[in-house]
Amino acid sequence: MRHGDFARSREARYSQENALRGSAILTRPYIHPDAKSALHCDGVSLEALARRFGTPLYVYSAGHIAERLGLFERAFSGIPHVVCYAVKANSSLGILRLFAQRGAGFDIVSGGELERVLTVDRHAAERVVFSGIGKTAAEMDLALRSGILLFNVEGEGELELLSERAAKLRRRPRMALRVNPDVFAETHPYISTGMREHKFGIDIRRARALYKKAGKHLEPCGVSVHIGSQIRAADPFGAAAQRVAKLIAELRKDGHAIRYMDAGGGLGIEYHAERPFDAEAKVREYAAALMPAAESVGGITLLLEPGRFLVAQAGALLARVLYVKKNGAKTFVITDAAMNDLIRPALYQAYHEIVAVAPRRSSRKMVADVVGPVCETGDFFARDRELPPLKPGELVAILDAGAYGMSLASNYNSRPRAAEVLVEGRRARLIRRRENVDDMLATERLATGL
Ligand code: LLP
After folding, report:
1. Catalytic residue list
2. What are the pocket residues of ligand 1 if the criterion is a CB atom closer than 6 Å to any ligand atom?
3. What is the best residue among 72, 229, 343 to mutate for testing ligand 1's pocket, by most ligand atoms within 8 Å of CB?
4. Are residues 256 and 350 in the same domain?
5. Number of domains observed in the structure of the chain
6. Edge to edge, what strands does the sheet with 40-41 contain?
7. Ligand 1 pocket: which of 88, 91, 261, 303 to mutate (most atoms <8 Å of CB)?
8. What are the backbone angles phi and psi of residue 221, rounded to the nearest 5°?
9. pLDDT per residue as tens digits for the range 162-207
10. For residue 439, how many other CB atoms are within 10 A of its CB?
11. pTM
12. What is the pLDDT of residues 334-372, one digit of tens each?
């Protein structure tokens, strides 16, 4: 091995990058503490976690999540605001509790998400915003009874139903229309939402007319927008916020006391370890794009709905290599985790770093596809990836899996869902035990007597 090769290898860069631990621009909490140690999450060895809890295993750093939330709190400290964590990114109770304990709010999109939030903090409803284009009457009733902060209404039919339910339950809920600002944001087409052809929101040009229809059972007090997810540039957020600010000024002229601007979520992260990423600077840029628009109309509480940015990089999916197999010219590393555990690569061709948990002295590399056992060609975590040579029985960590990992997991191929562990400094706590066969079959019945 030539030393220069090692220094340039991705793993070496990865460790160097993590030398920044403790600073606010910390990218990931996963490090090799020294050349002889296994990969750690904060103070806990992933080898020890795999031995104790088995694999596949989701591991999260509580400290990292708190740090990311702190970046938002600091960047937006100049304006009244509530950070409403987007529950869909990771809805595990142990994760929600971290946010509740720090006074964060929540962005929900279903009655189930509201139940989860109320399970961790029964007083959290006053900090909950309810988004989503298909709210049912039962979900509305639950949210009305809980007294949530804001309904983000996404269509005329929904406006009518909400008004009806509010009248029935004798409530007058605060509501915003989610407008579609027709702003283009560079991201994967499946997670872009802010253009006229998307199913989300109401055409911003029709919004004024609809606010007039809100009627006496609803209190129109906000305007909301969400243009998509994994958006790396700040400009589209700024452009959308300006359009919303203009609408707020018009609505106030129409007599509506608008005091909330919900800017949605969507701030992107960097999934590639070798590309620089300064999380603190990103949030500052984001704040600099949003705040002038909010300040231009005055008297506004800004609501923010970040999901991925807060939890993605805190999490890794730990998997064990089952087999290494060659088919023609290709090598496949088959792990015990699969697309049912983490569907992002299969669904969006998403890139996730994959690192060996055991320390490496050599710079030798292999090129392989990292795949799961599910019977689909789309079941892969990486294709033609340069990796350190891996053998059956070894552990790998699939990084940046804290957002849209476990929350999108399924039982496809009748695979029980993974366990989850939350690391707090040197302590690790199981926040979800591994599913077993009884869990999987619990809701099913054998039809008899037909
Ligand atoms: N607010 C609303 C109304 C949303 O629809 C979303 C995400 C968020 C907030 C949070 O966005 P974030 O800050 O996490 O980007 N499964 C995809 C992402 C889907 C995002 C859906 N909506 C993925 O794995 O990339």
Report:
1. 375
2. 86, 89, 107, 131, 191, 226, 229-230, 264-267, 305-309, 344, 348, 403-404
3. 229
4. no
5. 2
6. 30-31, 40-41, 44-45
7. 88
8. -140, 10
9. 999 999 999 999 999 999 998 888 777 776 776 777 778 899 999 9
10. 13
11. 0.94
12. 999 999 999 999 999 999 999 999 999 899 999 999 999
